[in-house]
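Case study: Putative ADP-ribosylation factor GTPase-activating protein AGD11.
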Amino acid sequence: MSHHQEIHSSRNIPGHLNPSTRLEKLLSEPGNRVCADCGFPSPKWVSLSFGVFICIKCSGIHRSLGVHISKVLSVNLDEWTDHQVDSVIDAGGNAAVNMRYEALLPDNIKKPKPDALIEERADFIRRKYELQQFSAKHPTSASASSISSSSSAQSSVPNNKYSEKKRMSIRYGLSQAFRNSWRKKESEQKPVKQQSKLLQMGMVEFVGLIKVNIIKGTNLAVRDVVTSDPYVILTLGHQTTKTRVVKSNLNPVWNERVMFSIPDPIPPLKLQVYDKDTFSTDDKMGEAEVDIQPLVAAAKAYENSSIMKATQLGKWLATEDNTLVKDSIISLVDGTVKQEIILKLQNVERGQIEMELECIPLSQ
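Here is what the predicted structure looks like once written out:
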């Protein structure tokens, strides 16, 4: 039985291997020992959407595409489920995914190397995954396949015989991915404008990662007669995600964790709370901003600290000039820099949001 088959079979045996162990075994396979996009050794991140292991620099580009295109998880920092590991196994590993998404890679386009500039890395990853220009299923790949059909490496790739209807379907699917992304409410925005914005997103360096735990809301505003169906939209730079909707609750508990790449220069973390409506536009329930620069500075300063006991590193004071309900403490806990925050929502009659932030150095 091959190593890959062994991992596959283990998922049918309850309690045989936990998700973390299965993931490590999958990571140890030869094709997965280097980043699928640039070849950097020992990748510690995964695009769950495509089932590839990638390095931290490439993971930042994947994140900038948005979770509707590439959802990124950490091998070590995230809690994996069996279902998520199964999806990575089903993708076949880095080699199999690259055979699909680089099937028609032109000779004049080279994959980025581990030391590639951010612009080169971002351009390649977008063309590979978002636009799928090198895939046999790409609408323009019919002519490309005839040029490269003599290549033995591509001989196993089936000829592209998609009908015009199928081609239109692919184009429609890509455009819908942009339009249906909940993070874009500018439905009237032109696709060209969106692409320009996306290109700008990738041309940045990342200085770290931030885990955001949206814990709960308190005394939120009423938007549906006597209650609301609240959810939170989180934005850091051009990266956006949202929590689930909590039905009929003015004191919702989410306890949802998300992770963002921290771009340089460091933007504020923005929160927007909405009431979910079925038949009309979602109602606003307030907003707030968090300056994460003090947290990032503390994380950099104590990145290699040997201090293990809980230590207060700093304090963000609650004043009339900010939205804090009470002073916010930045602490070193078990070697991790964290910050607990309770915010008063702005531009609304009432409401508070409680959250916890954790800054993660790139070395992890």
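For the exam, be able to explain this: Residues 46 and 239 are 17 Å apart (CA to CA).
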